[in-house]
Design brief:
Bound molecules: nicotinamide-adenine-dinucleotide
Strand content: 5-15%
CATH topology: Rossmann fold
Shape: globular
Mean pLDDT: 98
CATH architecture: 3-Layer(aba) Sandwich
Structural class: alpha/beta
CATH class: Alpha Beta
Number of domains: 1
Number of strands: 7
Radius of gyration: 17 Å
CATH superfamily: NAD(P)-binding Rossmann-like Domain
Distance between the termini: 38 Å
Helix content: 40-55%
Largest sheet: 7 strands, parallel
Oligomer: single chain
Low-confidence stretches: none
Order of helices and strands: EHEHEHEHEHEHHHE
Length: about 250
């Protein structure tokens, strides 16, 4: 296997792995030799993902887990350490969008759920992954932010708030733990055709959304996951604190 993408023996924990980016990333890492602890709030679906991956011969454990609960995030790391001895890779991917609406219509319940899942969920994941990585003297964390974490997102202000916070956690973590050889980066996709988008936007709406991108189309999940793999590559050893847009050119405008 090309050493750039050889994850043999690496242990990865991935949240939100029942579908979308998390599921595809789990499959791609397993194909390249990683051992996995995957979790999702959708228990049956994440168990099914694990079953399919383990049928290929890879080692994978699935947990039902709500990232807004600190103890659930702790349990993921404990499970990885108990079964596989370490955590090389932490991917804090679970997240939720909210209905598009103007900022002045966003109520407290939307603010609370965005903060609980998209912000606290990432920090809870990071804190337990980092505690383990400090004992190992190395590790790589990838947080999933968004284009909405880099710029204003019309009618998506609570989501944008949360995804900006993910960038704050990513950059600060990189600065705090660089000396400990823990790399912490974030990926910032534009609209991509995972269930988060396809379950809520029909083809006409998707067409409208794609007009914002110079490439005039939305992202494919495999295009985002390809960059996630590259950012997590064991050969990518000097990159930390970066928040990389994968956006069909949106941020270049
Ligand atoms: N698809 C896009 O257009 C897009 C763009 C930018 C960023 N993102 C981000 O990418 C990440 C993955 O999203 P996706 O596009 O694959 O969407 P998705 O909805 O297909 O997958 C998200 C997964 O997270 C899980 N989840 C939700 N709340 C959870 C919780 N409290 N605890 C544990 N798991 C939970 C869901 O059950 C689901 O399986 C999210 O953080 C999302 O905000 C998506």
């Amino acid at each position: 296997m090309d050493p750039l993408l050889d994850f043999t023996g690496k242990v990865a924990v991935i949240t939100g792995a029942a579908q979308g980016f998390g599921k595809l990333l789990a499959e791609e890492l397993a194909k390249r030799g990683a051992k996995l602890v995957i979790s999702d709030i959708k228990d049956d679906a994440v168990q099914a993902v694990a079953k399919a991956i383990s049928a290929t011969g890879a080692e994978v454990i699935a947990l039902a887990s709500d990232v807004s609960k600190n103890d659930d995030c702790k349990a993921m790391v404990e499970t990885a350490v108990k079964n596989f001895g370490r955590v090389d890779i932490g991917v804090n991917n679970a997240g939720v969008a909210h209905e598009f609406m103007p900022l002045h219509d966003i109520d407290e319940s939307i603010m609370d759920s965005q903060f609980a899942i998209n912000v606290k969920g990432v920090q809870f994941g990071m804190r337990h992954q980092i505690q383990q990585m400090l004992t190992q003297g190395e590790g790589a964390i990838l947080n999933v932010s968004s284009m909405a974490g880099l710029n204003g997102a019309a009618r998506g202000s609570a989501y944008a708030m949360a995804k900006h916070a993910v960038i704050g956690l990513t950059k600060t973590g990189a600065v705090e733990y660089g000396r400990n050889n823990i790399r912490i980066n974030a990926i910032c996709p534009f609209f991509t055709l995972t269930p988060m988008v396809t379950n809520f936007a029909d083809e006409v709406q998707q067409q409208k959304m794609s007009r914002g991108a110079p490439m005039h189309r939305l992202g494919e999940p495999k295009e985002i996951v390809a960059m996630m793999l590259m950012m997590l590559s064991p050969a990518n050893t000097y990159m930390t604190g970066q928040c990389i847009a994968i956006d069909g050119g949106v941020s270049a405008q």
